[in-house]
Amino acid sequence: MTLLRSLVLFAVAAVAEIGGAWLVWQGVREHRGALWIGAGVLALGAYGFVATLQPDANFGRILAAYGGIFVAGSLAWGMVVDKFQPDRWDVTGAAICLLGVAVIMYAPRT
């Protein structure tokens, strides 16, 4: 159950952070306005809160592992939202990052 909770929290954090950054990008770069930027700022704040709900108590470990989630999630977001087509190196890099997440977060510790 702890593993499932951790994975769900990583997914929620990724949607909040990547979505928030995308909303700010849209507000600024695509000239969609202050409402988009404000929504992005709120989503980014939600990301910061969600990260605190991880079962592991080590901030550095959580953020280091989340970095891999962010990499893979950003490529997935780009594919779904912006119709980005990753190449084999994007996919390989994301897979390496996700392997890093598994080692950092879920390797047995004594």
Automatic annotation (TrEMBL):
Chief location of this protein within or outside the cell: membrane
Membrane protein topology class: Multi-pass membrane protein
Annotated source species: Cellulomonas cellasea
Localization per Swiss-Prot or TrEMBL: Cell membrane
Key words, A-Z: Cell membrane, Membrane, Transmembrane, Transmembrane helix
Pfam family membership, one: UPF0060
Annotated GO CC locations: plasma membrane
TM region positions: 6-25, 34-53, 59-77, 89-107
Protein name per the record: Small multidrug resistance family-3 protein
Family under the similarity heading: Belongs to the UPF0060 family.
